[in-house]
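seq as requested:
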Amino acid sequence: MGFSVSGDAIEPSLNLNRHLIPNPVATFLMRVEGDLVAGAEAQPGDQLILVRFKAPQSGSLVVAEIA
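struct tokens:
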């Protein structure tokens, strides 16, 4: 099943950087390995988009290095 879409409703290309990467200089990808804190929605093998220096908000997944 589906529906028809007029030609003007289709974007010529989808730029994921524009939608997912707010600050390219401070953004990088990380693959999840091992177990996370209970309740985290990320699973082993998932790719995370990490933004350095962005203040965490309620519900954020925070990645930290403990030295």
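The mean pLDDT is 79.
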